[in-house]
Amino acid sequence: MMMQADPATLSAVARIAEAPKAPRLHVTAVRGQRIWFKHFGAERTAWGKRLHALVSPLMYPRFIRSSLPASPEGKAARELRKIKAFRGAGFRAPEVFYQRGDVLALSDMGETMQAQMIQLRQAGDMAAHDSLLISAAKALGEVHAAGLCHGRPHPRDFVVDDNGQFGFLDFEEEPEAVMPLADAQARDVWLLFFQITYRARQPQTPTLALQAYKASAPKPTLEALSQLLHFFRVLIPLGRVAAKFHLGGDLERFMTAMDFFRDAEKDAAEKR
């Protein structure tokens, strides 16, 4: 699966990848190509993530569990494994120039969806801005229909080319290794809607995005999503109390997404 490039390029990439004391993530132009270098061993895991990983096997329901703890080499192997799975299913994902130990060198895929959205907001084009959110939900549904899970879907982890085709990167989570695929995919769509409901500039956008996702989403995933929402719904009153004292970004996104899903389920029930 390694990128087929000329020997001079591969040699230059290897020299950069093996340089000591490199930052965790950096991009370098190598013979006219932008290449991203990821050094998984250059950053320590936060204590909160370590604690979550420690107690995760005991946690229920399963969709609140963390990915399996891994060494830096294991994290690189995990990302490589998921890149291979996405590319093998026909989705755009980075090409791999180099892999050794805890280091990956990956092709640049262009501007992220997040960067494009910032530009569209600055230009005042809210219709195009929200169209990206709807298309992202559709793309995630197609990923799930192919039996895959991103793990951490976020506008910064999506890219969109000039033809509107989505690509995916930064596969640093693997929830499908610790829970059924339907649960992992349900968590995927839940997390993506944290972003969609928070970032949407037009009121109809989240509803259109959910419709776009459901167009190809697997039925077991939609059932798992309903169970996930039911579990977290009991936390909404606590969230409202906490918001009176401090409404942080994570809490605001959680509340906004949960309010949307509550209304969406209510509307669906009334139409039955």
Q: Could you characterize the architecture of this molecule?
A:
The chain is an alpha+beta fold and 272 residues long. It folds into two domains: 7-107, Phosphorylase Kinase, domain 1 (2-Layer Sandwich), CATH 3.30.200; 113-271, no CATH class. It has helices spanning 7-17, 47-55, 72-88, 113-123, 126-145, 181-199, 205-214, 219-233, 236-245, 249-271, and strands spanning 25-30, 33-39, 96-100, 103-107, 158-160, 166-168. The strands form two sheets. It has a four-stranded antiparallel beta sheet, with helices on both faces. A two-stranded antiparallel sheet has the order 5-6. Helix 5 (126-145) runs parallel beside helix 7 (205-214). It is globular. The protein starts with 6 loop residues before the first helix and ends with a helix.
Helix and strand topology:
Blueprint: H1 7-17, E1 25-30, E2 33-39, H2 47-55, H3 72-88, E3 96-100, E4 103-107, H4 113-123, H5 126-145, E5 158-160, E6 166-168, H6 181-199, H7 205-214, H8 219-233, H9 236-245, H10 249-271
Antiparallel strand pairs: 1-2, 2-4, 3-4, 5-6
Describe the structure concisely for a colleague.
The chain has 272 residues and is α+β, with helices and mostly antiparallel strands. The chain has ten helices and six strands, in the order αββααββααββααααα.
The shape is globular
Strand content: 5-15%
Secondary structure class reads alpha+beta
- What order do the helices and strands follow? HEEHHEEHHEEHHHHH
The radius of gyration over CA amounts to 20 Å
Residue runs with pLDDT of under 50 for 5 or more positions: none
Helix content: 40-55%
Count structural domains.
2
